[in-house]
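Revision sheet: structure tokens.
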Amino acid sequence: MTFSRRIAVLLTGLFLSAALTHAQTQLGQPTLDEQKAQIWCAAIKFVYDDTGRPNLKSKMNCGGSLKQLENSIKADSQKVYSLLYQPLEGRGTMYKGLGSDKSRLQKLRDEIINKLKASPSRKGSPARMQAVDALAASLTSYVENGTPPGDVSSLNAEATPDTSTDEATAAAPADAGPEENPNYATPAPTGNKEGVMSSLFAPIAFIVALLSLVLFWLLRSSMRDLNARMDRHRDELEKLKSAGQSVSTSSGGTFSSKRLTPELRAEIERIVQQRVAEELGQAGPESSESPESPRVETLGYAAVPEKTPPPTERPPVADNRFVAQGFNPGKPATPALAPPTPAPTTTTEAPAPAASSFENIASAPSAYSPPAAPHLETPIPAGPPSAASRDEFDSLVPPVQLPAPESYASVAAAPASVRYVYAKVPVNGTFNEYDLQEDPQHDSIYEITLDANKPDTATFQVNPDPSVHAYAIQSAQYSLRDACRYPQPGGPVSYIINDEPGTLRKQGGAWQIEQKAVVHFE
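Predicted:
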């Protein structure tokens, strides 16, 4: 709250307090309206006694408000209302320029006394003038000290009224009129209900005004605290954003494949395919330089070592390759050919494998039926694999066709129809197209996959970049609630794991969330 607002609130409170204090008197004290009614009641009773019509006092309503007293004297048999009350109180011009209640009461007292003393008939009667002076003293005591004024009777009043007096000039406010019926019963005046209610509700209104000021101050304090909390949270979010930017720019060792553009991915795949083709091309000539076993290396067989262990140290079961090379389905088992003359630089001795249990397979009706009984014979030395016939080896091992590498066109054409864009948060369950970014930003929480073959649908998931997860977790209610389904974490978490991508459907210029993505926290 600024200084000017505080000053305005303080002045408003003081004004309300002063207005309530000025407009309402304290509890138990008469109001200005009630004090005026008491002064007029004493003056009118004096006029009735002075003119010899005391019976008219019973019609007066002195216990109510000033308006009720005015209604009770409008019968005006003595013209009190038309000649005395109406010129003074009815017009109200005498109160102009007076600010306090006491000054107004003093002005009313003086005007009434002056009006009564101005009567020619009273000026000629000292006793009646003394009665007017007694009325003035009584009214002065009421105005100054609050003493209720009593009935002031005329000192020269006889038992019967003086009919010889000129009624036209007897008193300015009291001309003669028709004789009133003294037996007429007037209703008892009602209590001063308006004064009691005003006295009762005046302090209540003051207390309510004070409570309003206190509640207003408490409201302003709570709003100030909320503003401070909002500023603190805003600063924390800004710090998290700056920390995410610094981590994404300074992490040189980590590399995310999702940041690659489709063109860069296609270039990498082309280079990989080219390297694989070169390796396969180099492997072909190396295998063709050794005529002894042109297909063994291609099929993955290990080459024969230069030195073979002695026959006595070999296992009893012969090597499958040697058995396969010495197998001839059309002839009985015969000793293998003598090994060829070794090269001058290498001196090797042909291994002497043990007799194979498949040597009698030629006499069997089928090449794949097992022998009737194993027949052990004297081990016959066999030559190296190079001594075997090429046809025999090809008949045993069928040629294996290696899968041809995919061409660059087929590899590069696959991701060409898929495009990745990034967005911050959905607005009312919708990703607007003008909010989509080709490259991920520091606050890009979602990754959207667009397929050219399906232009009306797309899939989305949380950005796998870990630097964005802290920002998304911090504002999960704002960033994840509308687009993801996830269990509430039981403790502190740092990463978001995508379990199932969500689906989007294009409607106009925006992508509407059709199915939320499923994630969990770790």
